[in-house]
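Aim 2, interim progress. The first record below pairs a target sequence with its C-alpha cells.
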Amino acid sequence: GTDDSLVPTSASQVNALATAPIEVDAGSSYSCALTSDDRIICWGNNAAGTLGNGMFDGGFGPSEVNLPCPN
C-alpha cells in the first residue's frame, strides 16, 4: 500500500515481476523480491541506495538488481 502509517495496508501489484516471487523482503521504505527465475527486483525509496541499482535518486519504480551490487 501507500499509507504512511504503521498499520498494514493492502499490497499493490508490481508489474515488473514477470515471474512469481519466491521470497520478499521489506525495509522501512523499500521492498525487494527474489523471483523464480533468479532475478532480484527492488522498488521504493532509493535515497540511501537501497534499491541496489548504483544510484541514490528518489527511486520508487521497480528496478532489477545487477549482481554483484554496485553499492
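The second target in this work package is listed in the same format:
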Amino acid sequence: AAKFLSYPIQLQRAARRIKAIRQKCLDCTCNQPKEIRLCPIIECDLYPYRMGRRPDKATLDTIKKFYEEKP
C-alpha cells in the first residue's frame, strides 16, 4: 500500500529543495547574494528558483518568452 505524506511534510520537503537550490546558487557565485540577484545565466534550470522561493507567474512568463524568442 502506498503511503501518503501529510500536507505539512510535503511543504517541508519542498522548502528544503528550494533552500538547497539557493545554496547551490550561493556556491556558484562564491557566496555573493547580490550576484544571485544579478545572475545573467537565464538558461540555468535553477534560475527561476535562485531567490530561495518559488517563482511567481510573471517570472515564469518572462522566462517562457525568452525561450520562445531565442533562435
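The chain is about 55% helix and 0% strand. This observation will shape the mutagenesis plan for the next reporting period.
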